[in-house]
Inverse folding.
């Protein structure tokens, strides 16, 4: 049996915010304010955040490193 979709509405003046929708019951948590309670949901949320950070890092434009800056050769 397929669960009906849950619609989540967030006021536009709430952001910026990070909203995590739980896999077990469709409830949501603003993870920039509170962490999910269950170990399973924390693990899923952590993996999702790490994935999002990798996407952000990969989308950064290449920049030249100036001599003397960390990372310079």
């Amino acid at each position: 049996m397929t669960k009906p979709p849950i619609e989540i509405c967030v006021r536009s003046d709430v952001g910026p915010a990070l909203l995590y929708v739980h896999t077990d019951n469709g409830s949501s948590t603003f993870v920039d304010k509170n962490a999910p309670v269950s170990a399973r949901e924390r693990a899923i949320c952590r993996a999702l955040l790490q994935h999002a950070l990798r996407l952000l890092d990969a989308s950064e434009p290449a920049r030249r490193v100036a001599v003397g800056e960390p990372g310079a050769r």
The beta strands are 19-21, 28-30. The two ends are 59 Å apart (CA to CA). Helices lie at 39-59. The mean pLDDT is 85.
